[in-house]
Design goal:
globular, Glutamine Phosphoribosylpyrophosphate, subunit 1, domain 1, alpha+beta, single chain, 7-stranded antiparallel beta sheet, 19% strand
């Protein structure tokens, strides 16, 4: 697609980055610089992604960290690879465990929603298969940020302050390490203030020297398990030692002549593909991008897709997830026919018989990485391993407690996962990575930026800058404050319960890299946070 880079329907926002030799796009300027530095030192796109990943764990701990999960799509120059870095429930977590501790549903904080952290093993597996530089070189900038301090940008400071305020209300031995790690002065760091974390530096140095084995079987593993045993956690030596990443075949769907790729379940990438498959049944170009009809069709497709995902998606290692059936074209056509002129409520369709960070990189040789990592809900579980900087995620709160449901909590099971990287190709040629973070906003964000680019011809920066919508439940639809008034009125007339949301972070934060036919790159970064795309 030939973008008119001078055409920008949201002129108040930024122009896209254009670069020939490589790009790094992240939600934090210093993380982008860490990745770019690795590219300029001779590293490839995978090395740069790992440098950015480690830096983000230090720089943006309110969204991701060493105790979280991660996923990636990697174009190696010839083909696309997928890797799932999702941790499993501890062997001691079950419906009976919850009941014994007085819970009928999954809690959001404390030890019970903590699953095995997967991101460190993911980093190691990516480096082993695709890396070209040593880990001590790749992690050097992240370690320097942790030891010497890095200033906190405005949007990170805001989410950090919210996380600390909540942490100050919690009591219990399992939460004792949080404030000493993330509020060493008794409060969250203010915008522009330096944050240092000796614990992060200690862990990253250990990983650079010993690899992921230190985290899952060595001294870091001992610290994790000792802290769990002392404060009521379920993680065991066996839970950590048995953890592995999984190389997976990406799932995909053709849309407007391009192929959109996602990570398969237990992630929610299938939601974006189902929504796009339904939208393929409509000619969106007959309706202006800024029209209530275009918004309505996209919203209803997303609602239908979520209804199916919530009913059928679980851990494919434990249950039969009917991914192929969910993406069946005839089935999607039938689902699309349910979309009328008014807001609807939908159940799952029958099957045919028979606080996250997203970032992406590209190098001069055409290798590209689409990567995402998270501790979920800001700082995750609120449980932090003292002196190691490891904030443990709470992905287990994604389980349900309905016996027989494919996503029901069980020992060794992976929960329904919200974090999803995306990738676009065209006739077998890599176009590039894209992603929008933010819980269940993610597949909705993927759908919106793909529609913006492929239906409405917007370049990556314009596709990200355009006002977004977010469906949550029933007919409730959140719109950004920049949404034109005529769209708001049109959606209200269609029966949507519209809420104007003044908080930009509610609509996700994205990055996009698009490789042009001559090998150069066009990239966009998120205006709703402190993000920046850099290149050379």
């Amino acid at each position: 697609m030939d973008f008119n880079l001078l055409s920008h329907p949201y002129a108040a926002q930024r122009s896209p980055l254009v670069a020939a030799n490589g790009v790094v796009a992240t939600s934090h300027p210093l993380a982008s610089q860490a990745g770019l530095r690795i590219l300029q030192e001779g590293g490839n796109a995978i090395d740069a992604a790992l440098a950015a990943a480690a830096a983000l764990a230090v720089l943006e701990p309110s969204s991701n960290g060493l105790g979280g999960d991660g996923f990636a799509l990697i174009w190696d120059g010839a083909r696309l690879h997928g890797i799932t870095g999702a941790g499993r429930a501890p062997a001691g977590l079950s419906l009976d465990t919850l009941a014994a501790r007085g819970h009928t549903s999954m809690p959001t904080h404390g030890w019970l929603p903590v699953t095995v952290p997967g991101v460190v093993r993911l980093w190691d597996d990516l480096h082993t298969r695709f890396g070209s530089l040593a880990l001590d070189q790749i992690f050097a900038q992240a370690i320097a940020y942790a030891e010497e301090g890095a200033p906190v940008p405005p949007s990170v400071a805001a989410s950090w302050a919210r996380g600390v305020a909540l942490a100050q209300q919690r009591q219990g031995a399992e939460f004792a390490g949080f404030l000493s790690t993330f509020a060493p002065n008794g409060r969250a760091p203010r915008p522009g203030e330096l944050f240092r974390s000796p614990g992060h530096a200690r862990t990253l140095r250990t990983l650079a020297q010993q690899g992921a084995s230190a985290f899952y079987e060595g001294e870091i593993a001992c610290a994790l398990v000792d802290f769990a045993q002392a404060t009521g956690g379920l993680l065991s030596d066996e839970d950590l030692a048995n953890h592995t990443s999984e190389w997976v075949e990406p799932i995909s769907l053709n849309y407007r002549g391009y192929t959109v790729h996602e990570i398969p379940p237990s992630g929610q990438g299938v939601v974006a593909l189902m929504a796009l498959g339904m939208l393929e049944e409509f000619d969106l170009t007959q309706h202006p991008r800024d029209s209530d009809t275009s918004y309505h069709l996209q919203v209803e497709a997303a609602k239908l897709a979520f209804a199916d995902a919530f009913a059928y998606v679980g851990d494919p290692a434990m249950v039969d997830v009917p991914t192929r059936a969910l993406l069946n074209r005839q089935r999607l056509r039938g689902r699309a026919q349910l979309i009328g002129n008014s807001a609807g409520q939908y159940g799952p369709g029958a099957l045919p018989q028979g606080g996250t960070v997203y970032f992406c990189t590209a190098d001069r040789d055409g290798r590209m990485v689409s990567m995402i990592q998270s501790t979920y809900m800001g700082f995750g579980s609120g449980v932090v391993v003292p002196e190691w900087g490891i904030s443990l995620h709470n992905r287990g709160c994604g389980f349900v407690t309905t016996p027989g449901h494919p996503n029901c909590v069980a020992p060794g099971q992976r929960p329904f996962h919200t974090i999803i990287p995306g990738f676009l190709s065209h006739n077998g040629r890599a176009v590039g990575p894209f992603g929008v973070m933010g819980g269940h906003m993610q597949p909705q964000g993927h759908t919106q930026v793909i529609v913006n680019m492929l239906d409405y011809g917007m370049h990556p920066q314009a596709a990200l800058d355009a006002p977004r919508w977010r469906w949550e439940k029933d007919e409730t639809l959140r719109l950004e404050h920049a949404t034109p008034r005529h769209i708001v009125e049109g959606l209200l007339a269609r029966g949507h319960r519209v809420l104007i949301e003044p908080t930009p972070s509610e609509f996700g934060r994205g990055q996009i890299i698009w490789r042009q036919d001559d090998g150069s790159y066009v990239a966009g970064t998120e205006m709703r946070c402190d993000g920046v795309a850099v290149g050379w």
